[in-house]
Amino acid sequence: MEPLPNSRTEADGSAVLRVLSYNIRSMRDDTDALARVITACAPDLVLIQEAPRFFRWRKKLARLASASGLVILTGGGTAAGPAILCGLRATVERTEDVLLPLTPGRHRRGFATAVVRFGGVRVGVLSCHLSLEPNERYDQAGMLLDRLAGLGVDHAVAGGDLNDRPTGRTFQRLAADLQDCWTTVPWGSEYTFTPVIPLQRIDAIFATKGIEVLGAGVPLGLPGVTETDLRTATDHLPVLAALRIPAAS
């Protein structure tokens, strides 16, 4: 497997970023393995789903960020699970945690969102974990697209646990407006659930049309990422993407 490009700033001012999306199941599994996987992926941004939400959730998420050489950007309990971590290369312009309409009897859902700069590049970021219920999930995809459009940036990245496959109407609604990074430039492996016998792709990273996708997929075979760690870290496999973001005009 050819390696993904490393993070860097290009001569024309554009930035190559490594973005990781990962459902961490509230850190109920092997957190040392989880930190090793994240660290080996060398991400600039980590879009987390199922971050700790209850007792001492900030402390738990901060511990994971520190063990991975990152800091908390936004989210966690305040976004009902989604969170964003980032490296010190990022300059934060603003953050906003968004709680979605609650359907009685179902889990609260939300978005963690931010606008960050990497040198002369501005990019919007959104982490999501969509509903298990098909109609609610489809509506949430529309809210996601609206939220990205409202960030006020030319380029944006969204990632998360969609609870939907590429053939599903929610996944297709997002892929109609955004680039599904795996489909655009597949790299690594495709399926994200479950780690033991991965048969489904329900986790994805999407990018707006002006972003160049350099590769995206599950980082199987990446140096430092072992199959044992992937199986024991959580109940999903991560998705890693390398993206070239144009400089602000």
Concise description?
With 249 residues, the protein is of the alpha+beta class. It contains six helices and 13 strands.
Note down, in words, how this protein is organized.
This protein has 249 residues and is an alpha+beta fold. 23% of the residues lie in helices and 31% in strands. Helix 1 (31-41) packs across helix 6 and helix 3 (134-149) packs parallel to helix 4. It is globular and about 50 Å long. The model has no long low-confidence stretch (mean pLDDT 96).
Task: List segments where confidence is low: pLDDT < 50 over at least 5 consecutive residues.
Answer: none
Structural class category: alpha+beta
Please outline the major beta sheet.
Answer: 7 strands, mixed
Helix content: 10-25%
| Series of secondary-structure elements, N-terminal to C-terminal | EEHEHEEEEEHEHEHEEHE
Using the CA coordinates, give the radius of gyration: 16 Å
> What's the pLDDT, averaged over the residues?
96
